[in-house]
Amino acid sequence: MPELPEVEMTRRCLEPWLLQRKIARVRTTASSYFFATPPEQLARRLRGRTVQMLSRHGKYLVALLDDGSRLVLHLGMTGQLFVEQAQNPRLSQAASKTASTAPFRPDRHTHLCVEWEDGGPKIFFRDVRKFGKVRWLAPGESDPRMTRLGVDALQVKASDLHSVARVRRIPIKSLLLDQTVLAGVGNIYADEALFVARLDPRGLACRLTRAECARLVRALHRVLARAMALGGSSIRDYVNPDGVDGRYQTERKVYQRSGQPCVRCRTSIQRVVIAQRSTHFCPNCQKESESERGPRTNLRR
Ligand SMILES: [Zn+2]
């Protein structure tokens, strides 16, 4: 599932292909839950408009249009937003069979196709599982899901996290995945950040000390920055808008590495389920919260 680094890479890569180009036509598939705005209405609203800016909050992309309206895009689980000439086997259903470099042809999973007045490269939004979303917002209108989002993970401060964490009796992993607390973090980067911060994902959020929150925020920022430097993670469907794979998956320390040795201590990485999500961690390196153990100097164990 695309998380903050993949969505931010999509934004950076796609923006130059959108800015100051006038939309000639929008083609869509039939009405479905993918379209928070009905496809006919979407096509009508977008025709003749120009994109002025593409911004991001958490895992949401927002295109500001010249009439003050906005287009909200969410990649969901398998969403792919890309430019016409992008070539990648992940953009085909027969991914494993055709490593061909044939140009992309819209298929039945291509729910949105934006054509421009300049006749230049089209933009496609393809989504096999259709958990992605597109929504058009009138000027001044807000997206109900976006208004509930917490602070963007790139902007979060240790004090923000600590003030939310201290009143939540839920595992730290669940807290990190809660988009109303922290926008943009999903399963991969939550597991990776907890490993870097040496925190047990099962530990209770309310027991995190200020120092641990600071460590966790530093780890999160480090992991997200590294993932963006490598173009995100291409584990299943994600490709950047030019058709290039991300490379972070080759550097992950715990995510989907259960049974393999920890890169620090060689202990087997374990997998547990927290909040219905697979969680991967090193039982030796990632310890319970300091407050749970009591101050180090008083340790009797
Ligand atoms: Zn370890």
The bound ligands are: zinc ion
Q: Give the strand order of the largest sheet, numbering strands 1, 2, ... along the chain.
A: 1-6-7-5
Uncertain residue ranges: 296-301
> Can you tell me the CATH superfamily of the largest domain?
MutM-like, N-terminal
CATH class identity of the largest domain? Alpha Beta
Distance separating the two termini: 41 Å
Rg calc: 21 Å
Largest sheet: 4 strands, antiparallel
Output the CATH topology of the largest domain. N-terminal domain of MutM-like DNA repair proteins
Mean pLDDT: 93
Provide the CATH architecture of the largest domain: Alpha-Beta Barrel
> How would you sum up the global shape?
globular
Question: What is the fold's blueprint, element by element?
Answer:
Blueprint: H1 4-18, E1 23-28, H2 39-46, E2 51-57, E3 60-65, E4 70-74, E5 79-83, E6 110-116, E7 123-127, E8 133-137, H3 144-147, E9 151-152, H4 158-165, H5 172-177, E10 182-183, H6 187-196, H7 210-229, E11 270-274, E12 277-281, H8 290-293
Parallel strand pairs: 9-10
Antiparallel strand pairs: 1-6, 2-3, 3-4, 4-8, 5-7, 6-7, 11-12
Concise structural overview:
This protein has 301 residues and is α+β, with helices and mostly antiparallel strands. The protein contains 8 helices and 12 strands.
